[in-house]
Amino acid sequence: MSIAFVSAVVPVVLLLFFIYRKDKYQPEPLGKLLLAFFVGCLSVIPAAMMEGVIMIAAPSAEYMPVLNGLFNGYLVAGLSEELCKLLLLLLVIWKSPHFDEFFDGIVYAAYLSLGFACVENIMYVFQGDDQMATALARGLLAVPAHFLFAVTMGYYVSLAKFDPGKKGGYLFKAFLYPMLLHGTYDALLMVSSNLANGMEEESAIIGGICLILFVVFIIFDIRLWRKGLKRIKKMQERSKEQGFDRLHPFDGFTWDV
């Protein structure tokens, strides 16, 4: 059990450390980061409640496997989880004096989203029949995906913060784009899973469709990483342009909340 727990948490810790190290100009207080992470952990609760309500209207996976996968991907997972994350992120950081540079939106969004991913990952790992296989698969795919959705969210939250004239449009994008990315990620997997589970016997056509969906998923995941890293680099450059002196990530270490 302890090995499974560690396996579920390690990918989260690595990504938390990764994004903290990327905050080169004005490192955030650890207390504020931990608050964002803790709020992210709690965001699982309202997200699950929203998902439960929306799932009432979900089409049958048996009779409408494609529509079911799209519904669950975009509306159940994408809409519920990203909306809860964004609302709580704004509650935690929008008026904070520590939100003072472009890169901060990405940092805080990542910590909050990884809090969500941490709780979700632990739940999936301990519910799975093969805990280590589940931990490995989710550690390579699901946890980084939540991180990358957060990079997109934080990117637009920062643009909204520092360009008040376009605040509404950027905040809408801070919800819409992560929701669409999350929905596409989940829908590709869910449609493929529904089709595979619905086969009464081996079918070359269904197998071929599932293979195509898997290839599309891998391409989508690679592009998600490339776009996310570009956004991280761009916001680092925008922070530099704000005139902050470059620090080692631990030089500005504080516990403030």
Q: Gyration radius, to the nearest Å?
A: 19 Å
Low-confidence stretches: none
Main sheet properties: none
Helix content: over 70%
Name the beta content range: under 5%
The number of strands is 0
Q: Report mean pLDDT, rounded to a whole number.
A: 92
Question: In oligomeric terms, what are we looking at?
Answer: single chain
Task: Briefly note the structural class of the backbone.
Answer: mainly alpha
The string of secondary-structure elements, in order, is: HHHHHHHHH
The total count of helices amounts to 9
Number of domains: 1
Query: What is the 3D shape?
Result: globular
Cα distance spanning the termini? 34 Å
Protein described:
With 257 residues, the protein is mainly α. It has one domain. It is 78% helix and 0% strand. The chain contains 9 helices and no strands. α1 packs antiparallel against α5, α2 packs across α5 and α5 runs antiparallel to α6. The mean pLDDT is 92.
Q: What's this model, at a glance?
A:
By secondary structure, this protein is mainly α. It contains nine helices and no strands.
Features:
78% helix; 257 residues; mainly alpha
List the helices and strands and how they pair.
Blueprint: H1 2-22, H2 30-42, H3 44-54, H4 65-93, H5 102-127, H6 131-140, H7 142-162, H8 167-197, H9 204-241
Helix pairs in contact: 1-5, 1-6, 2-4, 2-5, 3-4, 4-5, 4-8, 5-6, 5-7, 7-8, 7-9, 8-9
